[in-house]
Amino acid sequence: MTDTLKVYDAKAGDYAKAFANNAPDKHLARFIAALPTASHVLDLGCGPGTASAQIAAAGHSVDATDGSAEMVAAVTRLHGLPARQMLFDEITGTDIYDGIWANFSLLHAPRAEMPKHLAALARAAKPGALLHIGMKTGTGEGPDALGRFYTYYTEAELTDHLTAAGFIPDYKATGRDKGLAGTTDPWLILQARLAPTGTAD
């Protein structure tokens, strides 16, 4: 994770420029529309804060978190929002969030650690809370051309992880896009609800 964070610290400005947009994309718009009024949302791996700002603009409170110090600084500099530096191992709390936006962030976690991270998110989420998760698809794990660590998942594998943590997937989208490293990669987005009975630890 250290090498990955070094890349994001060094590339925070480039990342902010590459992925800036003035309105939510269709996936974020869908997520926002499904939230209860005045929801409390965790933006896990918020990057420079574009999604956090758009969620806040829709009337919700946002906990913007990222492992990169430079990304956290960018959130306040670009959007005037508070943000905090936090690693996946530092996810805490119980029954806090109405929604969790984990858009292409957890793909940096080693495969063996994904179950504990999803269990922590399930504990932090309120029953019935909405989770959005975006991942690159494929198999294996390892560094990309920039040195960032990635874990790749199939749809079945990611679905199994979510259901084991107590989330019930109800929407998916797939596609291919060019990322910061310059490669065009396939991806998968799943949105899920935490079961009313909570997590299945």
Description:
It holds the Pfam family Methyltransf_25. With 201 residues, the protein is of the alpha/beta class. The longest helix is centred in the N-terminal third of the chain and has 17 residues, at 2-18. It has six helices and nine strands. The chain has one domain: 3-Layer(aba) Sandwich (Rossmann fold), CATH 3.40.50.150. It is globular, with a radius of gyration of 16 Å. It is 33% helix and 31% strand. The strands form two sheets. It has a seven-stranded mixed beta sheet with strand order 3-2-1-4-5-9-8, with helices on both faces. The mean pLDDT is 93. The two termini are 26 Å apart. It has helices at 2-18, 26-34, 50-57, 69-79, 114-124, 155-165; strands at residues 40-44, 61-66, 83-85, 97-103, 125-136, 141-143, 149-151, 167-178, 184-194.
CATH class bucket: Alpha Beta
Average of pLDDT: 93
User: What share of residues are in beta strands?
Assistant: 25-35%
Q: What is the number of domains? A: 1
Strand order of the largest sheet: 3-2-1-4-5-9-8
Outline type: globular
- Structural class by sheet pairing and helices: alpha/beta
CATH superfamily (homologous) name: Vaccinia Virus protein VP39
Helix content: 25-40%
N- to C-terminal separation? 26 Å
H-E order? HHEHEHEEHEEEHEE
Poorly predicted runs of 5 or more residues: none
CATH topology: Rossmann fold
Quick one: how many beta strands? 9
CATH architectural category: 3-Layer(aba) Sandwich
- Helical run tally: 6
**How would a crystallographer describe the biggest sheet?**
7 strands, mixed
